[in-house]
Amino acid sequence: MEAVEFPARGREATSLQGAGSREAMVPIESRPQAPLSVLSEGDALVGQLLISGDGHLMGSFEGQVDCAGALLIGKDARVRADVRAQNVLVAGSVKGTVVAKGRLELTSSGRLEGDAKTSSVVVQEGAVHFGRLEVYPGGVPELPQGPPPAPRPAGVNRALSASVHRVKKVWGELF
Q: pLDDT by residue (tens digit) across 112-125?
């Protein structure tokens, strides 16, 4: 099983845990890099965050996150959002739905309160998850983006309200 790596961006060479990988000893600067987006510790953001590369959330965020690459939720981060990313590493607190197309990892300090869908999951001792977990080894199925369900017609609400009123009246006469 290969670990998700969130390498520091520097000039030194990095080694991955896959010893047979030729890319393992290539200097970072010569690899194609996706842009890195960071919400720093102490910062707060509310809204929709679209990340074209990798992302690090170290502060507070509320809303929706769509990340094309790997998303790191730092140890002191507080996230109340629906999260979609290729890989997600949770070291802080997340409240919301998480969809990780590749890998979802909960570290020993990580806390996820909400449902999660992923193709691979790693949970370290001490991690907390409240919610439903769906693991799809063949890949997370794409959900159709259909329109939201239609609201009930107003006439149905009035009819239901009248029925409730009649039941209350009957019960009131009996007791």
A: 999 999 999 999 99
